[in-house]
TrEMBL record:
The protein's Enzyme Commission number: 2.4.2.29
Residues covered by the tRNA-guanine(15) transglycosylase-like domain: 16-370
Name of the protein described by the UniProt record: Queuine tRNA-ribosyltransferase
Keyword entries, A-Z: Glycosyltransferase, Metal-binding, Queuosine biosynthesis, Transferase, tRNA processing, Zinc
Family: Belongs to the queuine tRNA-ribosyltransferase family.
Highest taxon, organism lineage: Bacteria
Molecular function via GO: glycosyltransferase activity
UniProt: Zn(2+) binding residues: C306, C308, C311, H337
Quaternary structure note: Homodimer. Within each dimer, one monomer is responsible for RNA recognition and catalysis, while the other monomer binds to the replacement base PreQ1.
Transmembrane portions of the chain: none
Name of the gene: tgt
C-alpha cells in the first residue's frame, strides 16, 4: 500500500484556493506547488543541490523520453530514477501520452494503445496503458500518471467524447496494472475538452474507479486563457476535496495564480526553463527580455525585489553580455532565477492562504503587472 496521503490545511474565505500537504515516503510536498520539469532525468541547467536551494520539493520526469533513452530497464538497474539522477525528494512521472500524441503522423491510436515511431531513430513501438505503468514503476517515481490522450484543441464534440471514453478505459487498465500492493500513487486525468458535460462524465467515471489524485488534462493546448479558466471553473468543483488537484502543463505566473484561485494544488510547465534559455526572465512586475539593448549598461539586478543568488550577485548588463556571447552560464543563471521566481511565488501564495489574504494577494499581483504593461506602452 502506498504511503501517499493528502491533508487539506487551509482554505481561502473568498475563493477556492487551498493550502495542503502531500505526504510521500521521500518527504512532504507543501501545496500549492510548482514542479520543475526534468524531462530527461535532469532539469536543464540545474544541479539537484541548486534545485533544493531554491525550494524545489518535487520534480517531474518524462516517461516517453526515458523509455526511448536510456531505457527504463537500464534506469531500474541503476537503482531507479532517484539514484540515477541523485535526487532524493519526490518525483512525478507523466504517462508519455502528451509526447506520443504530439507526434502527429508518426503515431496511430488504437484501443490497445498508441503505435508510434521514435523521434530518435524511427523505430516503432506500442505504448499501452500497461506498458506506461510498467515504465513508470521501473523508473521508481513516487507519483505516476494514468495513460490518456491529450485531446487537441479545437476538436469536434464527437472526437472529444470518443477519446474521453477511451481514456477512461485506459485509466482502469492502468489501475489494474499497478495492483493493490503498489508503493506509488496513481493519478487519474480528467479529459472532456472544453465541454462541461463531458468533463463531468470523465470526472464521475474516474472517481468511480478511484485514484490517489486527479489531474485536469487537455489544457494549455492552444486555447485562449479565458477558455482555459472557464474549463477550470466547471471541472475543479467536480473533483473530491480530499485528493490533490493537478493541472498539467500550465503555465505562466498569471495562469498559476488564476488556477490557485480556482482550487488547483499542483502545476508543471517548461515555461520558466525554456524562457530562461531564450533570455526571457520572470519578475515581480512581469517579464523582461534580457537580450534587449536597453540592458547593456544596466547595473540593476533582474528584479530588485528578488532575493535569489542571481539577483544578489549579477547585473542585468552582465546577464545580457552572457546571453549575447552564447555562454552556457547565461542559461544556468537565467534558469536559476526563473525557477526561484516560480517557487518563491508558490511560497508567498501558501503564506497568503494561511493568513486568509489570498484574494488580496491576487489583486496586488495583477495590479503590479497592469502597471508594468501601462508603463511599457507609455
Amino acid at each position: 500500500m502506498t504511503p501517499f496521503q493528502f491533508a487539506l490545511l487551509n482554505t481561502d474565505p473568498q475563493s477556492a484556493a487551498r493550502r495542503g500537504r502531500i505526504r510521500t515516503s521521500r518527504g512532504d510536498i507543501e501545496t500549492p506547488i510548482f514542479m520543475p520539469v526534468g524531462t530527461q532525468a535532469t532539469v536543464k541547467g540545474m544541479l539537484p543541490e541548486g534545485l533544493k536551494d531554491i525550494g524545489a520539493q518535487i520534480i517531474l520526469a518524462n516517461t516517453y523520453h526515458l523509455f526511448l533513452r536510456p531505457g527504463h530497464e537500464r534506469v531500474r538497474r541503476f537503482g531507479g530514477l532517484h539514484r540515477f539522477m541523485n535526487w532524493d525528494r519526490p518525483i512525478l512521472t507523466d504517462s508519455g501520452g502528451f509526447q506520443v500524441f504530439s507526434l502527429g503522423e508518426l503515431r496511430r491510436i488504437t484501443e490497445e494503445g498508441v503505435v508510434f515511431q521514435s523521434h530518435l531513430d524511427g523505430s516503432r513501438h506500442l505504448l499501452s496503458p500497461e506498458l506506461s505503468v510498467a515504465v513508470q514503476q521501473a523508473l521508481g517515481a513516487d507519483i505516476i500518471m494514468a495513460f490518456d490522450e491529450c485531446i487537441p484543441y479545437p476538436a469536434t464534440r464527437e472526437y472529444v467524447l470518443h477519446s474521453t471514453e477511451r481514456s477512461t478505459r485506459w485509466a482502469l487498465r492502468c489501475k489494474q496494472a499497478l495492483g493493490e500492493e503498489a508503493q506509488q500513487a496513481l493519478f487519474g486525468i480528467v479529459q472532456g475538452g472544453m465541454h462541461a458535460d463531458l468533463r463531468r462524465l470523465s470526472s464521475d467515471q474516474l472517481q468511480e474507479i478511484g485514484f490517489d489524485g486527479y489531474a485536469v488534462g487537455g489544457l494549455s493546448v492552444g486555447e485562449e486563457a479565458e477558455v482555459m479558466y472557464e474549463a477550470m471553473d466547471f471541472t475543479l468543483p467536480l473533483l473530491p476535496q480530499d485528493r490533490p488537484r493537478y493541472v498539467m502543463g500550465v503555465g505562466t505566473p498569471e495562469n498559476l495564480i488564476e488556477g490557485i484561485y480556482r482550487g488547483v494544488d499542483m502545476f508543471d510547465c517548461v515555461m520558466p526553463t525554456r524562457n530562461a534559455r531564450n533570455g526571457v526572465l520572470f519578475t515581480s512586475f512581469g517579464k523582461i527580455s534580457i537580450k534587449q539593448a536597453r540592458y547593456q549598461d544596466d547595473d540593476q539586478p533582474i528584479d530588485p525585489a528578488c532575493g535569489c543568488y542571481v539577483c544578489r550577485n549579477y547585473s542585468r548588463g552582465y546577464l545580457r553580455h552572457l546571453y549575447q556571447s552564447g555562454e552556457i552560464l547565461a542559461s544556468v543563471l537565467n534558469t536559476h532565477h526563473n525557477l526561484h521566481y516560480y517557487l518563491d511565488l508558490m511560497a508567498q501564495v501558501r503564506q497568503a492562504i494561511e493568513e486568509g489574504s489570498f484574494s488580496q494577494f491576487r489583486r496586488q499581483f495583477h495590479r503590479q503587472r497592469q502597471a508594468q504593461t501601462k508603463s511599457t506602452e507609455e
